[in-house]
Structures are given as structure tokens and as C-alpha cells.
Amino acid sequence: MDDPAGTPAPVAVTSSCTACGACLLTCPEHALRPQGGSLVVLGDTCTGCLECVEVCPADAIDVLAR
């Protein structure tokens, strides 16, 4: 899910997310936020470093084409 404010993020959290929080602890920009049992990526904050993708044990974060 992208940032509801409208800025597209370079990554998206999929429905495979288990809300384990690994990405929340890893993101150097704090660009992921819990929302409604899943996570939201703040597009205006995410730099696309992909650390969240690397650490996700459920492979629930997709890299989006730009």
C-alpha cells in the first residue's frame, strides 16, 4: 500500500505482510508505518534504499518500477 497522502513510494507492502515489524526497525528513514493491521510506506520519506526488502522474512515488500 502506498502513502495515502499521494506521493508514490518506490516499494509497496503486499498482502503477504505478517506485521512482524522487521522493516519498521530496519528502515533508516522511518518510512514505514503500521496502519489497519498492515503497513503503509510514506512515499515522501522513503529513499528506496531497499533495506526493508532485504530484511522482510515474508517477502512481502515489492520494488515498484519507476
UniProtKB/TrEMBL annotation:
This is 4Fe-4S ferredoxin-type domain-containing protein. The keyword tRNA-binding does not apply. Keywords: Iron, Iron-sulfur, Metal-binding. InterPro entries: 4Fe4S_Fe-S-bd (IPR017896), 4Fe4S_Fe_S_CS (IPR017900). It holds the Pfam family Fer4_7. One of its GO terms (molecular function) is iron-sulfur cluster binding. PROSITE patterns: 4FE4S_FER_1, 4FE4S_FER_2. The keyword Iron-sulfur applies. It comes from Streptomonospora alba. Residues 8-36, 37-66 form the 4Fe-4S ferredoxin-type domain.
